[in-house]
Specification:
Layout (H helix, E strand, L loop, with lengths): L2 E4 L14 H12 L3 H10 L1 H4 L7 H11 L6 H18 L6 H10 L3 E6 L3 H6 L11 E4 H4 L6 H11 L6 E5 L5 H8 L2 E5 L5 H5 L11 E3 L5 H8 L4
Parallel strand pairs: 1-2, 1-4, 2-3, 4-5, 5-6
Helix pairs in contact: 1-2, 1-5, 4-5
Keywords: Hydrolase
Pfam family, one: Hydrolase
Protein name: Putative hydrolase of the HAD superfamily
Amino acid sequence: MRAIVFDFFGTLTDPAAETARRTSFTATAAALGVPAAAFWTAMSTSFPERATGVHGDTRATLREMARRCGVTPADDQLLAAVRVQHAGAEQVRRPRPGALQLLDDLRRAGFRLAVLSDCSSELVEAWPRTPYATRVDATVFSWQERHRKPDPRLYATAAARLGVPAELCWFVGDGGSREHQGAHTAGMRPVLVTNAAHPHAAALRDDPDTWRPPYAIDDLTALPTVVTAANVPT
């Protein structure tokens, strides 16, 4: 095993940060002049579209969400809303305790690292400025690829960008979007992060896996015990 492909939200990010998502959307709604409840519904129900780039960048997406709520924001409102939305997204993607050190340690151990995420435009637009960007070798974002997990093309793209065959890649995630079944089908070796200490986060996962991976850990920081026990990287 020579590489590790990570899910992002709830895996590398702090699961506890998911509780900030609704507060973030409320602030964006206020900037747009949109009722908070209506905006929450619009954003929640549109994730499959937003995660595959249907509406374009964050500015264009927020304009469409406001339209669905019966509001046409002025240009200055829209610009302000984009800033607020990005600020809220930054809070939601804060690193899980120990995650950045783990990435550094795994790279030093010889693993190639990738992030494969179902995500909307905010993460893609901010990625180069995040603390994760310099710590991974490749990224595969659904917003850019126009496909969501468990689409096999995403896993194949991750392996190709890492320059490592899929069968020599671990896949590590918290189980949303049937990602482990997709990884298994692609030939990767899946590891479930149960987030046992954060049951509320599991309830927020979209389209959860029903297939149980052969490896499971309660917290991401336990990953080295799995990957080093199963393999010595070369």
